[in-house]
Design goal:
Layout: E1 12-13, E2 16-17, E3 26-31, E4 37-42, H1 44-60, H2 72-79, E5 97-102, H3 106-117, E6 122-125, E7 152-153, H4 157-165, E8 170-171, E9 183-187, E10 190-193, H5 194-197, H6 217-223, H7 248-254, H8 259-266, H9 279-290, E11 304-307, H10 313-320, E12 332-338, E13 341-346, E14 351-359, E15 370-372, H11 377-385, E16 387-388, E17 391-398, H12 402-406, E18 411-414, E19 420-423, E20 434-440, H13 452-466, E21 474-480, E22 493-494, H14 499-503, E23 514-516, H15 527-545
Parallel strand pairs: 5-6, 5-14, 9-18, 12-15, 14-23
Antiparallel strand pairs: 1-2, 3-4, 7-11, 8-11, 9-10, 12-13, 13-14, 16-22, 17-20, 17-21, 18-19, 19-20
Helix pairs in contact: 2-15, 3-15, 7-9
The protein binds flavin-adenine dinucleotide.
Length: about 550
C-alpha cells in the first residue's frame, strides 16, 4: 500500500496527499509516501467547480488557437517536477496561507485572483511600494504616460476579460501610439525628413523597399518570410525551428540583408544587440504581433487600446478585488521548502508560510534569491544566463516648442547614442508639452553607471549637439527604467542565440511547491497578455494538483 495515492488526487508530494485541503466535508483514506495512513478530506463540490472553472478558462481564450499540446492538462504535466523530499528533525512549520503569490505585477495578480476564486486563501506580497510591476502609469509626468506596458491588443483575451470584469474602461489612443507620428531622421549626423528618405543617399535598401522608413526596418524586415507564419503561437518551441536559434544578424545576412540595414535595425532593438539576440526571439515576437492581423479587433474596429485614467488602474483594481490586502515593501530574499510547506523570507525580516507559492519575480532577479533545496540543472543555468532587454527614459517638460524655432519635425529618430527623442502624444489637450529621450539596447548600458542627474546631463548635452534648438527649453522631470531598481530586470526577457533550444521548455517547471510565472514563462503570448497567460498557467498547475 505504500506510495499509493488516494485515487482522487494526482499523487503525493513530500509525504502529503496532494488532495488534502482544509475546511472540507468528505473523508478518504490516503497512504502517504512515508507509509503513514492519513485521513484526508476532500470537498467534491470544490473539485467539480474547479473543473467548470477550467472549462471556463478555455472559453475565455476563445479566438486564440490553443493546440492540444497547450491545453492546461498537458501543460501541467510537464511543469510538475517534484523537489527532493526534505526531512527535518524540527517540528514541521504550519502553513499560514494556502498560497503566497510573490510579485504584484499582472502575472502574479492574475494567478492570485484565479486561485482565490477557487476558494484558496491567497496572500500577495510585493517588493516595491507600488503595485503593477511593469505596468506603471507615470502620474507625476504631464500627460501621465505609461512607463512600460502600454498598448492592449484586441487579441488580449484574458486581459480584456479582466478589464471588463473589474469595470474599467478602455479607449483608443492616438492611432498606433508613437509609431505613426512623423519622425525626423538624424543619420550619420545629417537630418533627413520622412519625405526625403526614399531618394536619400543613406537609404541602404533597393526598389520598393526604399519607401520603408528606418524605424520600421526591424519589424518589417525581420517578419519577412517568417518561417513561423501560419503556424500555431507555440510553434517556436518545436525542434524543427531550432535552426533559427542563431544570432539575428547572422540570420539576416543569410537572407541577403546588407550591413547598413542591419545597423539601422539595431537602433531599436532592446536586447544586447543584433548579434546577441536569437533570430527566433525576433521571429516569434513578430509572429505573435501579427498573429491576429485581420482576425481580431475591438468592437469599434480598432486594434489597440489603453485604460482610461492610466493602465495602473488595472493592477490596482485587481489587488482591490482580493480578500487579503496586498503587502507592499516585501522584498523576497529566500524560499525554503520543508515538509510540504514553503517559508518565504523577506528583506525586512518578515516571513510567510504557504503550502504553495506562485513566484512572478523576473528570472534574472532570482539570481539574488536563495532556494532551499537549491535550484539545480537547466533552471539554475537559465537563472544565471537569461537576460532582459534594456531601456532608459529621460522625461522632460518642454518649456518652449523648440521645433518652432528650427522649423523641423519635433520627433527625432537617430543612429547616434541618443536614439530617439519624442514629444509625447497628449492625453488631454490641456496637458503641457512633454518629451522623452528613449534609449534602448546596447546604447543604454552606459546609464547603469550613472545616477539620474548624470543621465539628464548626458541626454541634454547630446540633444544640444544634434538639435541646438532644444538648449534651455527642457525641464527635468524623471528618469525611468525597468532595471534601475532591485526589483526590475529590464524591459522583457529576450532569448540569446542557443537559449530557445536550451531553456524555452524549462521555464515553466516548478521547483517543489514553488510555481514560476511572469511574461518570461509564457509560450503563446508576449507582453501583458503573456503575463496573464503565465499567471493562468501557474494557477492551473496548483488547481489541477490540489
Ligand atoms: C518600455 C516597455 C513597454 C512595454 N509596452 C508594452 C505594450 O505596449 N504592450 C504589452 O502588452 N506589453 C508591453 N510591455 C511588457 C509588459 O509591461 C510586461 O510584459 C508585463 O507587464 C510583465 O508582467 P509580469 O507580471 O510578468 O512582470 P512584472 O510586472 O515585472 O511583475 C513582477 C513583480 O515582481 C516584483 N518583484 C521583483 N522582485 C521581487 C522580490 N524579490 N520580492 C518581491 N517582489 C518582487 C516586481 O516589483 C514586480 O511587481 C512593455 C514593457 C516595457 C518595459
Amino acid at each position: 500500500m505504500v506510495n499509493q495515492p488516494c485515487g482522487l488526487c494526482a499523487g503525493h508530494k513530500n509525504g502529503l496527499c496532494r488532495c488534502a485541503k482544509e475546511g472540507t466535508t468528505r473523508r478518504f483514506n490516503c497512504v502517504s509516501k512515508r507509509g503513514n495512513t492519513r485521513l484526508i478530506r476532500k470537498n467534491i463540490a470544490m473539485k467539480t467547480n474547479r473543473r467548470k472553472f477550467i472549462q471556463g478558462l478555455a472559453g475565455a481564450s476563445a479566438g486564440l488557437i490553443i493546440p492540444a499540446s497547450c491545453t492546461p492538462k498537458a501543460e501541467s504535466k510537464t511543469a510538475n517536477v517534484e523537489a527532493p523530499a526534505i526531512h527535518s528533525k524540527n517540528k514541521p512549520v504550519k502553513a499560514s496561507h494556502d498560497i503566497v503569490v510573490v510579485g504584484a505585477g499582472l502575472s502574479g495578480l492574475h494567478a492570485a485572483m484565479l486561485l482565490e476564486e477557487q476558494g484558496f486563501d491567497v496572500q500577495v506580497i510585493e517588493g516595491r511600494n507600488r503595485l503593477g510591476g511593469r505596468v506603471y502609469t507615470l502620474n507625476d509626468v504631464p500627460g501621465k504616460p505609461e512607463a512600460a506596458g502600454e498598448f492592449i491588443g484586441a487579441n488580449y483575451a484574458r486581459m480584456r476579460n479582466t478589464v471588463e470584469k473589474l469595470g474599467l474602461e478602455m479607449y483608443t489612443p492616438d492611432a498606433g501610439g508613437g509609431a505613426n507620428r512623423p519622425w525626423l531622421y538624424n543619420i550619420k549626423g545629417e537630418y533627413i525628413t520622412a519625405k526625403n528618405w526614399e531618394s536619400h543617399k543613406f537609404n541602404p535598401l533597393e526598389g520598393d523597399d526604399r519607401t520603408l522608413l528606418p524605424h520600421r526596418y526591424l519589424s518589417t524586415i525581420s517578419h519577412r518570410d517568417n518561417p513561423l507564419q501560419g503556424k500555431p503561437l507555440n510553434a517556436w518551441l518545436e525542434p524543427e525551428y531550432h535552426q533559427y536559434d542563431i544570432p539575428h544578424d547572422q540570420y539576416l545576412r543569410s537572407k541577403g540583408v546588407n550591413e547598413e540595414t542591419i545597423k539601422l535595425m539595431n537602433v531599436i532593438i532592446h536586447a544586447g544587440g543584433m548579434h546577441n539576440t536569437s533570430a527566433m526571439n525576433e521571429l516569434r515576437r513578430y509572429h505573435v504581433m501579427h498573429f491576429s492581423d485581420g482576425k481580431t479587433t475591438f468592437p469599434d474596429g480598432t486594434g489597440w487600446k489603453m485604460i482610461k485614467g492610466g493602465n495602473s488602474l488595472l493592477p490596482q483594481a485587481m489587488a482591490e478585488s482580493m480578500k487579503n490586502e496586498v503587502h507592499l515593501g516585501k522584498t523576497v530574499i529566500g524560499f525554503k521548502e520543508e515538509d510540504g510547506v514553503v517559508q518565504v523570507s523577506c528583506a525586512d525580516g518578515s516571513e510567510y508560510t504557504a503550502k504553495q507559492v506562485v513566484c512572478s519575480i523576473p528570472i534574472t532577479v532570482l539570481k539574488n534569491v536563495t532556494f532551499e533545496p537549491v535550484v539545480q540543472g537547466v533552471t539554475k543555468d537559465a537563472i544565471n544566463e537569461m537576460d532582459y532587454g534594456l531601456s532608459v527614459q529621460a522625461h522632460f517638460l518642454i518649456t518652449e516648442p523648440f521645433w518652432e524655432q528650427d522649423g523641423m519635425d519635433a520627433n527625432m529618430w537617430t543612429d547616434g547614442p541618443l536614439e530617439r527623442f519624442a514629444v509625447r502624444t497628449k492625453k488631454d489637450p490641456s496637458d503641457p508639452d512633454a518629451g522623452l529621450a528613449f534609449i534602448n539596447g546596447p546604447e543604454s548600458l552606459k546609464f547603469r553607471l550613472m545616477n539620474d542627474d548624470q543621465v539628464f546631463t548626458y541626454v541634454e548635452n547630446k540633444l544640444a549637439e544634434i538639435r541646438p534648438s532644444t538648449k534651455g527649453k527642457l525641464k527635468r522631470i524623471m528618469i525611468q527604467s525597468c532595471e534601475r531598481d532591485i526589483h526590475g530586470a529590464g524591459d522583457w526577457v529576450y532569448w540569446q542565440p542557443g537559449q530557445v533550444k536550451k531553456y524555452a521548455n524549462h521555464m515553466r517547471k516548478n521547483h517543489g511547491n514553488i510555481h514560476f510565472c511572469g511574461e518570461h514563462t509564457a509560450i503563446m503570448e508576449r507582453g501583458m497578455e503573456g503575463a496573464f497567460e503565465s499567471g493562468e498557467r501557474a494557477a492551473l498547475d496548483i488547481i489541477l494538483n490540489a
